[in-house]
Amino acid sequence: MRHLKRYSALAKGLYTPEGRKDRKVVVIDVRPSPTSKNADIFLQVTPGADFEIVHVLRLLIAGKRLEGLEEESLVGGVAFRQWQELAELMKACRYGVVMFGIGLTQSRGKDLNAEELNSLIIELNAFTRFYAVAMRGHGNVNGSNQVLAWQTGYPLAVNFQRGYPRFNPGEFSVVDMLRRKEADAALIIATDPSAHLPQSAVNYLKSIPTIYLEPHENATTTWANVVIPVAPAGIGAGGTFYRMDNIPLQLKKLVDFAVPSDLEALQGIKEEVLRLKRGEAAC
Amino acid sequence: MGELIHLTLKAEPALPVEAESITPDNLRGKNEEKIKNLPVWCGNAQEKIGDYFEVEKEQSAGETRVVLTGECAQFKRIGQGMSFGELVIEGAAGFHTGALMRGGSLQIKGDAADWLGAHMEGGRITVAGNAGHFVGAAYRGKTQGMSGGMILIEGNAGQMTGSRMRRGLIAVKGNCGDALGFKLLAGTIFAGGRTGRHPGANMLRGTIILGEQPELLSSFYYNCTYQPVFWNMLYAELAGCGFFLLPGGQDASFKRYSGDALNGGKGEILVWQST
Prior knowledge:
The complex is a heterodimer.
Chain A: H1 2-8, E1 26-29, H2 34-37, E2 41-44, H3 50-62, E3 74-75, E4 78-79, H4 80-92, E5 95-100, H5 102-105, H6 111-124, E6 129-134, H7 141-152, E7 158-159, E8 166-167, H8 174-179, E9 186-189, H9 193-196, H10 199-207, E10 210-214, E11 226-229, E12 239-242, E13 248-251, H11 262-277
Parallel strand pairs in A: 1-2, 5-6, 9-10, 10-11
Antiparallel strand pairs in A: 3-4, 7-8, 12-13
Chain B: E1 2-9, E2 17-18, H1 24-27, H2 32-36, E3 39-42, E4 45-48, H3 49-52, E5 53-60, E6 65-69, E7 75-76, E8 86-90, E9 105-108, E10 124-127, E11 147-153, E12 167-172, E13 188-191, E14 207-210, E15 221-226, H4 229-240, E16 253-259, E17 267-273
Parallel strand pairs in B: 1-6, 2-7, 6-8, 8-9, 9-10, 10-11, 11-12, 12-13, 13-14, 14-17
Antiparallel strand pairs in B: 1-5, 2-3, 3-4, 15-16, 16-17
Keywords (chain A): Oxidoreductase
Organism (chain A): Desulfosporosinus lacus DSM 15449
Protein name (chain A): Formylmethanofuran dehydrogenase subunit B
């Protein structure tokens, strides 16, 4: 709701002085949601049909013939006629933004859905100004992507085992490595694997040594081998937070906590590891 | 005078080992001791082939032949970049097996994992079992995958088989996963069994031959049903290697669809018609 109010739907701008009245909001989702209630057009689609839907929109925008589709044929559970209307709407607008979330990238087709959407946006720019903005699921997911990208060139699933960064989602991504039982220890920072990973991955994590940096009590703190309480970022520790549209925001420390920040805890661990590698006695 | 090098797995490792040093190119002309000291990587530690394999070497007729005995599913990158000779894996193989291969022959008697023959440039890979995802595909961020050679799979293959392939042949007798030949640039892909969602999506050129009618995207247009001339040659060539494509043999007819209309429509999907 805050996103609708501040950025996407209700905000007033130079060319949208009336705010919401100057905008057309189309929601494509598998179920009705508070956002879909505020939409001008809501298209309830069947799950897993994202690639086909974007492909049909690309064909409509390119003005190609669509084999086997008539006005009342269903594409992703919605009448083809409605996709025709949406394609016309997209071509006719002055400034369009597609906001997509994990519903697109974590359903069947995965990264190909996002690639297809990017192709759609590229092609729409021949007609009008169009953008795609990825809506990440949690706070500052973008931050880890940004930092990994400027440090290694890759945004996620980076492996350093050979001394240089290598990137290969599916081979070096968390769920796949845990599913294949390729890790024999884990350092977990700023996430709750019990709440987010598949059960089989969590079960394997439980069987290996885990070190967990976390400010709150949650489902993972109950079983992690070592839990290091840290100050909550943005409250007990300062830092940089990346907003979903890639804007870095400086966060100041508000209150003092008796525990170290993530940075201090990691620096401490690193110094200790280096000391042990040099063969010195532990402090 | 050639060499026959036997590598026998002592015990299957618990963690994956990167063994791109195991290629006929690298093992040729080295004695057993030198082969044992060649590096492999486990985690961040550099180890030796001798830590995992018993090595035996004998002189033989013909070219260099390397035979690996044991389940090598935890060994990644075996045969990566090999350019000649014969490499036989008498069991399963791990990720990236035969990736960047330039020539020679690689035989896998068990199952192969993901990225089999990725970015392959030449040579032949045969798999007696199933293969994983991304067979002959392009690594993430690259626009062209396999650019030559042949991959023959007796079992099934996973998703994105032959995606972004530039040249060469991939033949799978069994089923394939989603996005077969995604963004195919050129080359030939054969899948004898069922295929997953949207085969040939965004293909530019190239040929995809399917044994069963798939649900095609609406950007593929039906052209005709015919007997393509090249099919006889392809069938005979692979039959010569002991790989028989379809029960209809050389006289099969196919439904031809052209697409993807979004990328010029110069690609073709041929669907076998049972007689």
